[in-house]
Amino acid sequence: MLSRVLSGARVTLPATMIVIAAAALIGTVAGTVAALGGKVVDEVLMRITDIGTILREHLLPNEPEELELSVIELADGSGSLSMRMRDGALTLPGVTDISTAGGWRAYLASGRTQGAIG
Predict the structure, then answer these.
(1) What is the number of domains present in the chain?
(2) How many CA atoms lie within 13 A of 85 on its CB side?
(3) Max CA distance (Å), the chain
(4) What integer is the mean pLDDT of 70-89?
């Protein structure tokens, strides 16, 4: 058991150190820019950091528990922040998988909807 913990630590400890160093560097740069940039720059940086608070405290708690905030992979390989169904919610009654249709609009255009609101 100890060998598994030590083996896992070989990967997680350096990764954790990199994340901590990156966060410290970003925080130091942002703090320096805010301090030297004046009131306008400080206000802009404050509004950018407020986005995380707004998401965490206002938007996400009001979402149904079947949804989660996630990064999805697009056809070109890039990522996009998106709301998606939790894996366990995909098997609930009344849930239809529209991914094979190519998206919501394509699904509605196909006429396969049964009482869906579009």
Answers:
(1) 2
(2) 11
(3) 59
(4) 83
In-domain check, residue 116: no
What is the structure's pLDDT at 11?
79
Residues 9 and 34 in one domain: yes
Examine residue 73 and state whether it is found in any structural domain, yes or no: yes
Same domain, 41 and 87: no
Whose structure tokens read 């149904």?
64
Contact 95, 85 (CB under 8 A): yes
Q: How far apart are CA 19 and CA 54, in angstroms?
A: 23
Dihedral-angle region of residue 27 (phi above 0 means left; psi in -120 to 50 means alpha; beta otherwise): alpha
Residue numbers of the domain that contains 8: 2-62
Residue matched to tokens 């056809």: 75
Q: Is residue 89 in some structural domain?
A: yes
How do residues 5-61 score in pLDDT, each as one tens digit? 777 788 788 889 999 999 999 999 988 988 888 888 888 888 888 887 787 777 667
